[in-house]
Amino acid sequence: MVANSRELSGSECAAKLLERMDPRRWLREVSVEAELAFGAVLFCLARKGFGKVRVVAARRSWEMEARLFGRGRSRAECRAACVPEEYAAPAERKVTWCRPDRSLHVAGRAMDLDLSMYDVQVRGHLRHVLQALGMGVPAAWSKGDYGHVEYRR
Length: 153
Ligand SMILES: [Zn+2]
Description:
The protein is built from six helices and three strands; from the N terminus they run αααβααβαβ. With about 150 residues, the protein is mainly alpha-helical. The longest helix has 16 residues.
């Protein structure tokens, strides 16, 4: 199904994982367990032929998440979600459905994968692989938010 994607060798995967995992960050984040789980997932995906998958976002600050929430929302909608009104940007395209105080990105328990190189059919297959690996893949995928993956204990 994904014959064109090159499978990475074990050492290439390990090198990529080390690039993504900065040990200095582990000391001040509570998400070590999630980060290790994501690393294992990326390793498994590469082994299954999804070597082109790229992590585009993982942990975000509350402020960053609040700014994202403001896109496509009015000042009143922001106020109702306890997000500062100055972050409202109603003319922009909505990019998230999640309040910042409920975001697993802020908790360090979510990552966004760039899957744009795969067609809808392959993404569907990828979704099942992620679920089989124990990852949470919310319904937002069907709204166009492809690639959001959550680590839930
Ligand atoms: Zn996400």
